[in-house]
Structure formats: structure tokens, C-alpha cells
Amino acid sequence: xxxxxxxxxxxxxxxxxxxxxxxxxxxxxxxxxxxxxxxxxxxxxxxxxxxxxxxxxxxxxxxxxxxxxxxxxxxxxxxxxxxxxxxxxxxxxxxxxxxxxxxxxxxxxxxxxxxxxxxxxxxxxxxxxxxxxx
Length: 134
Hints:
The structure is a single chain. By secondary structure, the chain is mostly helical. The protein has one domain. It has six helices and no strands. Helix 2 runs antiparallel to helix 6 and helix 4 crosses helix 6. The longest helix has 19 residues. It is globular and about 35 Å long.
């Protein structure tokens, strides 16, 4: 059952990714991902410890990938958009490059996976950033 869910999720993400590209504000998506990389640039600013529904707005020294994306959204867009193009693209690239680390909540699951490193997170974000390079 779990395997079917993961395969369905992967196919849905490919579909969403392929069909959402025309509606993206590439400049804003680029800025959000660039800001996320900036937030997580130092390894000591990243943590894999965190809950799915963490309070990401509070001031902190360490961020999960999800909280860094949340913070970047607010700083660039003025609001958090869970289904923005860049969030869908992050999910797509997690499914594409780190398929075995997928969980029910892909961003949280990838970040908290025992094999995920700070280097993996930055690699992922740089892949997404290249997609939005204008």
C-alpha cells in the first residue's frame, strides 16, 4: 500500500510540476529559493530536528528546510504559499533526486530523513534555483 502511495505521489508531482510551469512568476520563485539558500547557507543554521507543524515564524538560530522556505516566502512574497511553484518544484526535485527519502510530507520527510545532510539540502535548493534562473 505504501509503495502505491509513493508511486502515485511521484506521478502527481511530475504532473503538477509539468503543468504549473506556465503559471510561475520565475523572478519571485528565484528570489524565494535564493533567500532559502541564504538562510541555510551555513551548516549550523540547518537542523533536521523539527515537527511537521513547527512554528516557523518565531526567531530562531536553526531552521528545517520547511521553516527556511516558510521564512523566505514571507520575506519575499509577504505571505507563505504552500502550493506556490517553487514549493511544487522543491517537492518534484525531492521525488526525482531523493526518491527513497519520500514520506507523507515530502519536504519534512526529506529534511528529517536519517541520511539527509546539509549538503543534500543545499544540492536540492541549487537544482531548484537553476530551474528559475532568468
